[in-house]
Amino acid sequence: MARNIKIGTHNGNFHCDEAIACSMLKMLPQYKDAEIVRSRDLNILNPCDLVVDVGGKYDPSSHRYDHHMRDFKESVSTVIKKPGYDWKMKLSSAGLIYCHFGHEIIKQLSPNLSDNDVEKIFKRIYDTFIQEIDGIDNGVPMFEGEPVYRIVTDLSSRVQFLNPPMNSDSVVSDEQFLKAVELTGQEFVEHVKYAINNWLPARSYVEEVIRNRFEVDSSGEIIEFTKPASEVMSHLFTIEKELNVQPTIKYIVFNDDTYRVRCVPIAPSSFMCRMFLPEAWAGLRNEELERVSGIEGAVFVHSVRFIGGCKTKEGALSMARKSLEIGKSGSN
Fold first, then answer.
1. Which of 118, 173, 184, 326 is most buried per CB count within 10 Å?
2. How far is it, in rounded angstroms, from Cα 217 to Cα 110?
3. CA-CA distances (angstroms) from residue 135 to 97, 270, 282?
4. Contact criterion met (CB below 8 Å) for 68 and 145
5. What whole-number distance in Å separates Cα of residue 285 and Cα of residue 279?
6. Cα dist. 12→20, 96, 139, 318 in Å?
7. Angle at which helices 170-194 and 115-125 pack, to 10 degrees?
8. What would the pLDDT profile of 179-236 be if each residue is shown by its tens digit?
């Protein structure tokens, strides 16, 4: 007869971090049918197989994962002591469970992933999903000063709204907590699915394009995309760093109705570019742009010079190559 597995967590009002911690654990075979016991009484919690967000102890060897102690300062970088796991955000229960079980959970959700791809997905999910929950639960501000407006539709807020009204009994609270476990679990799985089905293939494609850059131009500073890829800039900066790409990539050629030349920014979200298109081309279109640039089929260059267009791929490549030449000569 299988023993009764119990996951302990606190009662009363609940937060996103313990809800998603429980939902992640229940994705694993060993905890799939576990009973969730909500209490602050150590006499009730101590017999549990695993305790989350309560108990006053962080001890992975005995499966105790509280983060509320005064001296608790753990982050991904201190729990997973490996290169590339550099996040310094203080962990909540969500981050703790993810650090200790995340690789196993991802592998459970997608058994065919290689260990290398599991590592990539793990980092992606922490960076874009779990870290947010850790930061909110620990009261870490996103920036200095007061925000112009507040976001109340995030996952942590939606979990907060599931808490029962004041003076509700514990049965209602337990029922609502299970709804929060289901909600957070669904969102976690959707993020993992997106990472596996969209983000990871796009990343592999961007890496392939970067590795083949010298086939596009001998400088290695121009790359060409022949099919769409999501989050191109984010992938580009990551892969450039991993592959130690030197010199850095300046222009991306791609097809979007017409062929385009996109300048690579200095950072994924920056409006400043590593090398803008030539100033003499700014805001010009069609025949005037053809005349000034000497590029047949040139269609436009944006007035800010971060993007331009041509009728043909050859024209776009010529636009990128001439821009590179002008930019390096210092006459841009």
1. 184
2. 38
3. 15, 24, 43
4. no
5. 14
6. 16, 21, 20, 65
7. 120
8. 999 999 999 999 999 999 999 999 999 999 999 999 999 999 999 999 988 899 999 9
